[in-house]
Design brief:
The protein is an alpha/beta fold. The chain has helices at 11-22, 40-49, 55-76, 91-98, 115-123, 160-170, 182-187, 205-222, 240-257, 273-279, 296-305, 328-342, 370-374, 379-393, 399-414, 421-427; strands at residues 25-28, 78-83, 133-135, 142-144, 147-148, 175-180, 190-191, 226-230, 261-265, 287-291, 312-318, 347-351. α9 links the parallel β8 (226-230) and β9. It comes from Aegilops tauschii subsp. strangulata (Goatgrass).
Length: 433
């Protein structure tokens, strides 16, 4: 088709398509697996924990993984590439480290939190137990639950978000730093042992916001133009005082965030109507991200309630929680229906959630036959799908890629193999099957 062959277009369209090809398409990835395509991080961590390798060895593996992920997304044409989604353990523990919210039993004496304190919190050590671990919403992923009390002293104790932003920038990749949002952090925490039943975790909001401001100020100084706050608790049924905490938190952060584009990202479920109202009226926020795979009611809500004028919609149409190839035609039609709501230049194609919930790269599956392989997309392939949808929205649809995808969708729908052992084995250890 002529849309995928710019040299046949009339001159004015040729110029437009050349301009579009120079800039990245409106595409975004919420987060990416950190283990590595061959589980490099897992082996490096185990070796470090066993005392067989040094902290420097571990950090080298981590830096190489981050660099390859950023490069991969950049080369795939993704415009909004996340940073600070890498973790040695989990992103909530990273936030606990950022806020210096370390319980006394770990004998941390202040300063930048190092590996020994970080891993003691996560795994315990010879003298003290780890902090509690619980499921990250309804996924197979777990996180370390922050233990907070009125006596918790907060301090800016991990500069990871800023150093990883700078690390990507030094490699020529401008990223969107991702932070667990302040309200979700508190709502996902628990009161420490012995704390009064009446203690409200949200009462600590004013104590943690100054640290968020410091992080934001440093990110701005380092050159960041976008920042992403993950506030997934907005998909829960929240009480009025909990919703009010979002409004006051972002009002308090507004002056620090001034000059930045701010994306609030939600995922895993529908955003209830009240939460949607709160979210879309937050101060200083430029963009809203939604899971439109599990959030079918959210899709209707966006169409009926609309998006405030001039704000961006990050539409999570590519499923971050399974290993199946996206139905590109269906996603494109969803995206086109949203263009009418938000305007062409404010619609960004995204994943439904972080891709850390899926496998890393199909390239390593050498034993699968080509038919089954055509039905699958791991994280690396989902990045390509997101970009293909972004290009299609911009009028540069790759007809051959879409046709191959449609054929694979049809073959999977009609194949007697879908329920057989081989396919189940291919997908058995992943979510969504």
């Amino acid at each position: 088709s002529s849309s995928s062959t710019p040299h046949r277009l009339p001159p004015h369209l040729r110029r437009r398509s050349a301009r579009l090809l120079q800039g990245k398409m409106a595409s975004h990835i919420v987060g990416y697996p950190r283990m590595g395509p061959k589980r490099e991080l897992k082996f490096a961590l185990e070796s470090f924990w066993d005392g067989k390798s040094s902290a420097e060895d571990l950090e080298k593996v981590a830096a190489d993984l981050r660099a390859s992920i950023w490069k991969q997304m950049s080369e795939a044409g993704i415009k909004y590439i996340p940073s600070n989604t890498f973790s040695y353990y989990d992103q909530v523990l990273d936030t606990t480290a950022m806020l210096g919210a370390v319980p006394d039993r770990y004998s941390w004496t202040g300063g930048e939190i190092g590996h020994s304190t970080y891993f003691s919190i996560a795994r315990g050590n010879a003298t003290v137990p780890a902090m509690e671990m619980t499921k990250w919403f309804d996924t197979n992923y777990h996180f370390i639950v922050p233990e907070l009390s009125p006596a918790t002293k907060f301090s800016y104790a991990s500069h990871k978000a800023v150093s990883e932003y700078k690390e990507a920038k030094a490699l020529g990749v401008d990223t969107v730093p991702v932070l667990v949002g302040p309200v979700s952090y508190l709502l996902l925490s628990k009161a420490a042992k012995g704390v009064e039943k009446s203690f409200s975790l949200l009462s600590l909001l004013d104590s943690i916001l100054p640290i968020y401001k410091e992080v934001v100020t440093e990110l701005k100084a380092a050159g960041a133009s976008w920042i992403q706050f993950d506030e997934p608790t907005l998909v829960k049924d929240l009480a009025a005082h909990e919703l009010a905490a979002f409004s006051s938190a972002y009002a308090a952060l507004e002056s620090a965030l001034s000059g930045l584009n701010v994306l609030i990202e939600t995922y895993f479920a529908d955003v209830p109507a009240e939460s949607y109202k709160t979210l879309t009226s937050l101060s200083g926020v430029t963009a809203y991200g939604f899971d439109l795979v599990r959030g079918t009611k959210t899709l209707e809500l966006i169409k009926s309630a609309g998006i405030p004028s001039g704000k961006y919609l990050f539409a999570g149409v590519v499923d971050g929680r399974n290993i199946w190839a996206d139905d590109l035609a269906a996603s494109l039609s969803t995206l086109q229906s949203l263009e009418a709501v938000v305007g062409k230049d404010k619609l960004v194609v995204s994943t439904s959630c972080s891709l850390m919930h899926t496998a890393v790269d199909l390239v390593n599956e050498t034993k699968l036959d080509s038919e089954i392989k055509s039905w699958l997309a791991f994280a690396a392939q989902k990045v390509v799908e997101v970009n293909a949808l972004g290009k299609a929205l911009a009028g540069l649809k790759d007809e051959a890629y879409f046709a191959a995808n449609a054929a694979a969708q049809a073959s999977r729908r009609s194949s007697p193999r879908v329920n057989n052992e081989e396919v189940q084995k291919a997908g058995g250890c992943f979510e969504g099957l």
